[in-house]
Amino acid sequence: MGARKIKFKENYVVDVKGKRVGVVLKISDYRKLLDDLEELESIRAYDAAMASGEKPIPFEVAISRIEKRRG
After folding, report:
1. Distances (CA, A) of 18 to 11, 14, 21, 25, 38
2. pTM score > 0.90 for this model?
3. How many secondary structure helices (H) and strands (E) does the chain include?
């Protein structure tokens, strides 16, 4: 999987001195960024889990343990 380039037009919000202080995006571009961020977070969580060296447990067992803790 190669890196993909996100292309969109930014519209900057500037202060009275002309300093960029914000950006306005099309809502579709914003949602795409959020989707990509969520995917990146999942990849990082997976990488961290794999690097931990801990033994994986089945999803159903994990859910059962969580529900027991909620009591």
Report:
1. 13, 5, 9, 19, 32
2. no
3. 2, 2
Residues 33/6, Cβ–Cβ less than 8 Å: yes
Sign of the C-alpha dihedral, residues 25, 29, 35, 39? negative
Distance (Å, whole) CA 14 – CA 42: 34
Residues 3-59 have pLDDT tens digits of 567 777 889 999 999 999 999 999 999 999 999 999 999 999 989 988 998 888 889
Domains of the chain, by residue range, sit at: 11-70
